[in-house]
Write a structure and sequence with these properties.
Helix content is about 45%, strand content about 20%. It has about 375 residues and is of the alpha/beta class. Helix 3 (about 90-105) links the parallel strand 4 and strand 5. The protein is globular, with a radius of gyration of 21 Å. It starts with 6 loop residues before the first strand and ends in an 18-residue tail after the last helix. It binds 5'-O-[(R)-(carboxyoxy)(hydroxy)phosphoryl]adenosine (KG4) and zinc ion. Zinc ion binds near residues 145 and 341.
């Protein structure tokens, strides 16, 4: 039986992207608009919460309007509104939640609350189903971004004809998220913001085995991550190698002139710096892949899902793909556009909840530490 294609308007404002999207059914993205605040936060080297909230306020109305126009529908055609209500920055979340509530009230449409992390999981399903593929559950899912690094066991069951997803947390970072560590190391090396994409572009020019960062020493949950140790090791390496200081200063000046392309920064980087970048990336990737595959083995899963901004990393993708082929398991990534924060993934995560009639009421609030269950 073919499912009717309900139209879901997704709204996302948990961090530094104001996003809206219209998704039909579980696979057709009619529009996905993302207003990124990278330029606003660049000079601070990270997201400034007050600036983020203010910018969401300016962007939310035009972004939703644009998503509706690009989809060639009207707000009246929408069947439900799905909005991120956590986790994230409280002031940022409140903009989307308040706007979603007002819109749902004004249009008389159901409102669906979506956990941002469930959105990242559903970004993988959305991408796969648009390509006619269907990841087998149970799966182990690594969500790895600037704000999160966490492994879940994802299962689903049919309840009253609707698919109901459950998420059990296996492990997560005890300090920095992997993307946050990339951003901080890029800042130390004067490579610009955000750091992950530029590290990704420069790492192939260095030797990943030049510097050994070692495994973080941790007791307790073996599926937990720690990235602050690797970040501090980079800092100590720079202190022991003061000869790298002049080129850091040269790159800082280049960035101040607006020269932030990978080619420009590479010509200002010595082989020693490129080796450091490659070795750092290798340590982060080995950690992420090693812990995730250990969780896959422990759960006996046949499917791995990898999502979040850092899932765009070429070396991470290559390593997961090689390991998955070796173990004869399946690995799924969203496209790069669906890896970073967007609202199509929020609409997709809201869809099964809409079908199950799990609607929020107007007491819905932003929950900065919302857990995924
Ligand atoms: O998912 P996202 O857009 O926002 C958060 O929820 O954090 O992820 C942004 C993070 C940043 O830390 C950025 O440096 C990192 O993802 N990132 C990457 C790459 N592209 C973005 N890290 C490594 N390699 C990349 N290609
Ligand atoms: Zn995210």
């Amino acid at each position: 039986m073919t499912e009717p294609e309900h139209l879901i308007l997704g709204i996302e404002s948990s961090c530094d992207e104001t996003a809206a999207a219209i998704v039909a059914g579980r696979r057709r993205i009619l529009s996905s608009v993302v207003a990124s605040q990278t330029e606003i936060h660049r000079k601070y080297g990270g997201v400034v919460p007050e600036l983020a909230s203010r910018e969401h306020l300016c962007q939310i109305v035009p972004v939703v309007r644009e998503a509706v126009e690009q989809a060639h529908v009207t707000l009246r055609d929408i069947d439900a509104i799905a909005v991120t209500n956590g986790p994230g920055l409280v002031g940022a979340l409140l903009v989307g939640v308040t706007y979603g509530k007002v819109l749902a009230q004004a249009l008389g449409k159901p409102l669906i609350a979506v956990n941002h992390l469930a959105g990242h999981v559903h970004a993988v399903f959305l991408e796969a189903s648009s390509a006619g593929r269907s990841p087998q559950l149970p799966a182990v899912c690594l969500i790895v971004s600037g704000g999160h690094t966490v492994i879940y066991h994802v299962t689903s069951e049919l309840a009253n004809g609707a698919e109901r997803f459950s998420y059990a947390r296996i492990g997560g970072t005890r300090d920095d998220a992997a993307g946050e560590a990339c951003d901080k190391v890029a800042r130390m090396l004067a490579l610009g913001y955000p750091g992950g994409p530029i590290i990704d572009r420069l790492a192939p020019y260095g030797n990943p085995n030049a510097i050994r960062f070692g495994e973080p020493k941790m007791s307790g949950n073996v599926y937990d991550f720690s990235f602050s140790g690797i970040k501090t090791a980079v800092l100590y390496h720079l202190r022991r190698n003061p000869q790298l200081e002049p080129e850091i200063e040269a790159r800082r000046q280049a960035l101040a002139r607006g020269e932030r392309s990978a080619d420009a920064l590479r010509t200002l980087s010595s082989p020693a710096t490129l080796d450091l970048i490659a070795s750092f990336q290798c340590a982060v990737v080995d950690n992420l892949v090693g812990r995730t595959l250990a969780a896959v083995d422990q759960r006996g899963a046949r499917t791995v899902l990898v999502s979040g901004g850092v899932a765009a990393n070429s070396e991470l993708r290559r390593t997961f793909e090689a390991e998955a082929a070796r173990r004869n398991i399946e690995v799924y990534f969203p496209s790069r556009a669906l890896s970073t924060d967007n609202a199509a993934m929020i609409a997709a995560a809201g869809y099964p909840r809409f079908l199950a009639g799990e609607c929020a009421d107007f007491s819905l609030n932003a929950v900065p530490n919302l857990a995924l269950a």
